[in-house]
Each structure stands twice: as C-alpha cells, then as structure tokens.
Design brief:
The complex is a heterodimer of chains A (about 120) and B (about 280).
Chain A lengths: L2 H36 L19 H9 L3 H29 L3 H19 L5
Chain B lengths: L2 H22 L4 H11 L4 H26 L4 H21 L5 H21 L12 H5 L4 E5 L2 E5 L4 H18 L4 H11 L4 H25 L5 H21 L5 H27 L2
Antiparallel strand pairs in B: 1-2
Helix pairs in contact in B: 1-2, 1-3, 1-10, 2-3, 3-9, 3-10, 4-7, 4-9, 5-11, 7-8, 8-9
The chains are: A mainly alpha (about 120), B mainly alpha (about 280).
Chain lengths: ~120, ~280
C-alpha cells in the first residue's frame, strides 16, 4: 500500500473521530435536557405510536431545536451521525482519486449516488 | 419504570451490543434488538429504528480505530458495498411480491450451514493459493497488523463474492435484517480474507448500508429520539472498547463468538418463518 493511501486512511479516521464525537456530544446534551425535564416520568415503549410529524422532517427538527427541546437536539446529533456516513464515502472516493485509481473512483461515486438516493428518495410517495 | 432507569438500562444493553458488534463486524443489532424487545419490552418498530442508528454508530466509532491500526480494506469494502446497496434497494422494492415466510426459512437454513462453516475454518492450516487475477488488477491485496509486524494476504473469488453480496442485499432488504453477518461470511468463506480483515471491513460497510435505510425508517416514524439516544450513547462506549480489544483478542475466539451469533440468528429466522407460515 502506498504512503499516500495510508496517510489518507488516517485522515479519514480523524474526520470520522471528529464527526462521531460531535454527534455523541450533541446527543448527550439533548439527552441531558430531556432527563432534566422528564427523568422521573414513567415511560413505556410497549406499543408503537410513531413519531410526531415535526420530528420526521429537517424543518420540524430545526423548529424544535430553536425551542430548546431535548428531543430536537438529540435528532440533530443523529443527523450528524448519518451525515458522517455520506462524508466518509465521499472521502474514500477522494482517497482513490488521489491515488489515481480510476476503477475505484467510479465504484465509490456509484455507491455515494445510490446511498444518497436511498437516503432521500427510496420508498417515498 | 422511570425514564432515567429505563434509559440507563438501554445504554447498558447498547454498550454490550456495541462491544460484541465491533469485535465481530456484525454491528450489534443481533444483540440489541432482542435486549430491547424481550428484556425491556420495547415494540419491534422502535427497537429496529434504534438498532439501525446504533449500528451506524458502532461502524463509525470502531472504524476510527480500525483505520488507524490498518485492518480495514477499503477497496474490498467499496467493491462489495456497490452490489450490496443495489441489492438492498431492489429488495425493499420486491417486498410485496415475495413469499417472506418461505424466504425466512430458506435463509435461516443457509445461515445454519454458514455458522458451521465459519466455525470450522482454520486459516493457518490452509494451503497458499494465488489471488483472483481481478483482485490483483484492482489492487485489493494488502497486509494487516499481527503481533510484531504486518502480514500480507491474498484475495480470492472477487466476482462470486460481489454477486453473493448483491443477493444478500436483496434478502436483507426483503427481511429487514442487518447485513453485517453476511458481509463477514462472504469475505471469510468466499474471498478467504484473514478473519480480522473480514470483521473490520464489514464493520466499515455496515454503517453505510444502515444509513441507506435511515430515510425509510424516519419517514415511517420508527426512530424514537429518546430511546435511540440511550442506545447510541451505550453503543458508542461499547464500540470504542471493543475496537481497542481487537488487537489482543485471538481470531479463534472471535470466530467462535461470531458463529454463535449467526447460529442464534439462523434459529430465529427458521422459527419466525415457521410461525408466520402456520395458519
């Protein structure tokens, strides 16, 4: 394996570390707010109710965030985590581009395209 | 149960699942879903939602360590990811046209046999066979860290591996199960990679595969932020601990752990299939 590859792998690792920490800290902050307010409430998850519609879209989550809702903040942290998945595929593509590996640039671009499609459009309508 | 206690228990379950998930390359879903459903009485939809996000966390957190140590084979990962993701999208579309209980049983028996094969393999006694010419052309051969240095390895049967991943993607899309176990099986049994390369490369892939399903889960309202929060934080701690252990744990022990998990999954599939099939 070339030195460039090895260095890029470490760089991807660093980006993942930053992303995963940002996500965990945000989720933890949201969780703390939630526990502060509702820690002693009784919870049960026996029956599936489905999430309210405000937590099913980016705009809704943003509105919740602005109101200082713990659930909104948790959702933001989870969005970071999913975004990191897109970023790391993109970075892996960049790694192949830098090592002039044409076949894998194409393969990774296809994966990125399919992932984006699945994430935003699959099963809609 | 009070929210704080319930969420604490979810996080503890998540930590255990994250550790095993990172070590075996399976992600943790095989353990986390039963813990949530059977022990903590969470409904299946929310348990599956929390587990899906938790798997992206295992994958991401553990990959930080594995990339740094040099285990993960990114070329193999991306090559298999392509057919796996195509299969997953196709499987989700086919769900309405396929007899799911029958498929569950067939898949269950396949896993049963795979669990046996995976348990039986002894890498160190295998004769040295050359790499698939395609693997050489694609630059997939690499080396991985062993105690006291690096060990070069070969990559076999690239196209069959990739086709099987596509089939596995279709099945996991149809049955809504994670692909981690199949990733490891294909790399270990078909492409004949060293065990720790298989588990860490699978670990890299599962987060991407899971992310592909997040959109659908969110639109169905399966992801409860509070429950997922506790699971993800637990998994985060467990996965980091598990990833650090990998260097010192013997491959043989991992193989045993993984085969047992696949066996459990196989039995679950067969039982579920039979139950659904009976009137």
């Amino acid at each position: 394996m070339t030195l460039v590859m090895r260095r890029m792998e470490k760089l991807i690792g660093m980006v993942l570390l930053v992303g995963v920490l940002a996500s965990a800290v945000t989720v933890l902050a949201g969780g703390s707010i939630f526990l502060w307010r509702h820690g002693s409430d009784v919870v049960h998850y026996r029956i599936f109710r489905g999430e309210p519609s405000d937590l099913r879209s980016l705009a809704g989550i943003w509105d919740d965030m602005k109101r200082g809702s713990g659930r909104g903040l948790i959702q933001l942290g989870l969005i970071f985590l999913v975004a990191v998945q897109l970023i790391r595929v993109a970075l892996t593509g960049l790694l192949f581009l830098l090592s002039r590996d044409k076949s894998f640039v194409i393969i990774t671009a296809l994966v990125l395209g399919l992932l984006t499609y699945a994430l935003f459009f699959a099963g809609r309508g | 149960m009070a929210a704080w206690l319930f969420l604490f228990l979810v996080a503890v379950g998540g930590a255990a699942a994250g550790m095993v998930g990172a070590l075996t390359g399976e992600g943790g879903g095989i353990l986390l879903v039963p813990v949530l459903v059977l022990l903590l009485h969470v409904n299946l939809h929310n348990a599956a939602g929390a587990s899906l996000i938790a798997v992206t966390m295992t994958s991401t957190a553990a990959t930080v360590t594995f990339l740094h140590q040099g285990y993960t084979n990114l070329r193999v990962a991306m090559f298999l990811q392509l057919t796996s993701i195509v299969g997953g999208i196709a499987g989700a579309m086919l769900a309405a046209y396929v007899p799911v209980p029958a498929l569950m049983m067939v898949f269950g028996f396949t896993l049963l046999y795979s669990s046996y094969l995976s348990f039986r393999r002894r890498e160190e006694e295998e004769p040295d066979r050359p790499s698939d010419p395609l693997a050489i052309r694609l630059g997939m051969e690499s080396s991985y860290p062993v105690l006291g240095g690096w060990k070069f390895y070969k990559v076999r049967r690239v196209v069959p591996g990739s086709l099987l991943m596509g089939a596995a993607g279709i099945i996991s899309g149809l049955l809504g199960i994670g692909a981690g176990a199949v990733n490891v099986l294909v790399m270990d049994q078909v492409m004949r990679l060293p065990y720790k390369v298989s588990t860490t490369t699978s670990n890299f892939m599962i987060g991407i595969t899971a992310a592909a399903s997040v959109g659908i889960y969110v639109r169905h309202g399966y992801i409860d932020p509070v429950l997922t929060m506790a699971a993800v934080l637990g998994i985060f701690a467990g996965a980091i601990a598990g990833a650090r252990l990998l260097l010192v744990v013997r491959a043989k022990l991992l193989r045993f752990l993984f085969s047992t998990l696949v066996l459990a999954m196989a039995i679950e599939m067969v039982v579920k299939g039979v139950l659904r099939w009976l009137p």
